[in-house]
Give the backbone structure.
Amino acid sequence: MEKGTAYQVSVDEIVYEPHFIIIYAGENASDKELQKMAIDFILKKDPMFSKADFADSVVVEPAGLDEEPDVVAEGYHFPKN
């Protein structure tokens, strides 16, 4: 398994709880890849939204590994303590 890192992704165009989605993905994951994972997560949780509700930008920041992520990218395994 490849080593990953945690990202905090925010989709500001909509009101969604939780506001930040934690994604565990590759260290070189692009903002576009993280955006797709975050939007897919929201659409699965709340079918009220459609892809058209989202703009083409998200805010991506580093996140800590102290809590379990909402999304784990394919090919990665989040290390549990």
User: Anything to note?
Assistant: The longest strand covers residues 4-10. The first helix runs from residue 31 to 45. The chain is about 20% helix and 25% strand.
